[in-house]
Amino acid sequence: RGAETVTATGAATEAPDRARAQQGAHLTTSTGTRLRDTDHSLKAGSRGPTLLQDHHLREKITHFDHERIPERVVHARGAAAHGYFEGYGTASELTVAKFLQEGVRTPVFTRFSTVLGSRGSADTVRDTRGFATKFYTDEGTFDLVGNNMPVFFIQDGIKFPDVIHAGKPHPDREIPQAQSAHDTFWDFVSLHTEGQHHALWNMSDRGIPRSYRMMEGFGVHTFRLVDAEGGTTLVKFHWKPVLGVHSLDWEEAQFINGVDPDFHRRDLYDAIEAGAYPQWELGIQVFPDNEEQQFEGIDLLDPTKLVPEELAPVQAIGRLTLDANPKNFFAEVEQVAFHPGHLPPGIDVTNDPLLQARLFSYIDTQLSRLGGPNFNQIPINRPHAPVNDMLRDGFHQHADHEGVAPYKPNSLDGGCPFMAGTMEATFADVPVRVSESTKVRENPASFDDHFSQARLFWLSMSPVEKEHIIRAYTFELGKCYEDAIKQRQLQCLANIDPVLCQEVATGLGLPAPEPTEPLADVAPSPALSQLNGTWPAD
Ligand code: HEM
C-alpha cells in the first residue's frame, strides 16, 4: 500500500456526495432499519405512559435536541452561494498560484455576512459586511476572508475581543442587537482612535449595501505573492462587483428591516435562481516588497490604512461568478469554515499584526463551533486537491485511514511522498528576514497616525455622500446615553474635519470642539466615492 493512496478527505475535483443522507424510498432509523410509524410513540396501552424502550422515539427526540450548534462568535448572520473563478493570467509573472493562470477555472463557495448581529438578526443594518471566498484549487484550498471595507478597526489582533465586546449588544440590556448605535461602540472608537477610519466607513453609505451583489470586497491586509524564481511582491486584494457599488438610504434600510429582514439573503438567492449570476472581478494593487513595507508613506502592515487607487491602480486578475444556491443551508452555509491561513503555493502572509492574530483565531474557534478537529472533512470544507495529511482520529473522524505509519519518512507505508516527488506546487514559507530587534509590544511609530486617512475618505465623498455621513453620525450618536461619550467622539470628528464635526454637533445640540491636532494635508481619492468608483469595463 503506497502512502499516496491514503486519502483522508476526498479526491481531486470530486464533488462530495451530499445526497447520501436521504437514500431509498423508505423512512428508516439512522442505522437504516425501515420504520412503520413515526407519528406515535410506544406506550403501555393506548392511554398509558410512554415506554423507555421506544428507540425510534428516543433517537428522533435526542437528535432534535442537539440540532443547534453555536453560531459564529462574529459574522453569525450570512448567506452564501457556489460558483467558479476564472484566472486571467495577468498575475502570472507575480505568482505561481495555478488558479490565477489564464483560463484556469476553479470551483468556489462565497459567504457574505454581517459582523455583529446574531444568526437571526436583520440584513439591512448598518454594519461591516464579510466577503469570504473559498477557492477549491487543485493545489489546495485558498480562503480569501475579507470584508466590504478596506480597513479595520484595530491594528493588532490582541484587541479583537475588545472591539467585538464593544460592538456586541450591551451585556445588561442585550440591545442593540445588530447596529452600531450604542455607548460601548462609541466609547471604544473614541478611546482607541485607530478605529475612527473604519467607523467613518460604517457611517458612510458602505455601511448599508443595497445587495451583496453590489458590494466591493477587500482582503484588507497586505499579502505577499511569490513568483517562479522565489521573487516576492506585496499586494492588496480587491473584489469589484460588475453591477457597481450601490447602497440603501438609511430610511429605506429601516423600512426594509421591518418588511423583510431577509432582504439580502433573498436577493442573492432569487438572483441566482433567475439566472442573473452575480460577478466580481478580482484585482490587486501591487507594491514592491522592500524592507520598510511602505508605499508612498503608507504603512502596508497597518490594517487601518488603505492605498488610494490613484496611487496604485487595481489590476484585474480574474473573475468570480456565483451561479448555484446551497441545497442545505446548515450543511453548507453554517458549516463552512474559512481560515486566512489556507493559502496555495504562490501566496503568503505578511507581518501585519492583525493578520497574524487571525491565523490563530479561526481554527481555534472552529474547533468548538464545529465540534472537534475534523471539520475539514465536512463536505463543504473538503479540499478538491488530494489530501494526505497524517492527521488521525478525533471527534467526528470520517476517514478510514489505511496503513500503520502516519509519520514521515517511514519504511512501512510507502516512504515519504513529499521527498519522493518534486518541490513543484508545494507551499513554501517565503524566507523573509525577521527583525533582529528585541521583543516589543509597542507599535511602530507609523501606526500612530489615526486621523489622516479618515480625513482622506471624508474629503473624497460627494456632497450627497457627506450628507448621509452627517445624518448617520447624528442618528447613531444620538442614541448614546452618555454625553461624555458623544463629546469625546465629537472631538475625534474635529480632528477629521471641522465641517463634519460642526454639522454633527449641531444635530446633537452640543458644542463643536476645536481640533486637538493639525488637520492632515491629504489629497482626496475620487475612486473612494461610490459615484466615481472604477468598475470592470463590461
Ligand atoms: C469570521 C473577516 C479580523 C476572528 C470572519 C468572517 C469574515 C471575517 C468574512 C466570516 C467567515 C464566514 O463567513 O464563515 C475578517 C476581516 C478581518 C477580521 C476582514 C480584519 C481585517 C478578525 C480578527 C479576528 C477574527 C483580528 C481574531 C483575532 C474571527 C472569528 C470568526 C471570524 C473567530 C468566526 C469564524 C467561524 O466561526 O467560522 N471574519 N475578520 N477576525 N473572524 Fe474575522
From TrEMBL:
It comes from the Bacteria. It catalyses: 2 H2O2 = O2 + 2 H2O. Decomposes hydrogen peroxide into water and oxygen; serves to protect cells from the toxic effects of hydrogen peroxide. One of its GO terms (cellular component) is cytosol. Residues 28-416 form the Catalase core domain. The active site is at H75, N147. The chain holds residues 60 to 597 of 757 of the full protein. Residues 3-14 have a biased composition (Low complexity). It is an enzyme of class 1 (oxidoreductase). Keywords: Heme, Hydrogen peroxide, Iron, Metal-binding, Oxidoreductase, Peroxidase. GO terms for biological process: hydrogen peroxide catabolic process; response to oxidative stress. This is Catalase. It comes from Nocardioides daphniae. The lineage of its organism: Bacteria, Bacillati, Actinomycetota, Actinomycetes, Propionibacteriales. The keyword Oxidoreductase applies. Its cofactor is heme. There is a cross-link at H339-Y362 (3'-histidyl-3-tyrosine (His-Tyr)). GO terms for molecular function: catalase activity; heme binding; metal ion binding. Heme binds at R72, R111, F160, R358, Y362, R369. Belongs to the catalase family. HPII subfamily. Its EC number is 1.11.1.6.
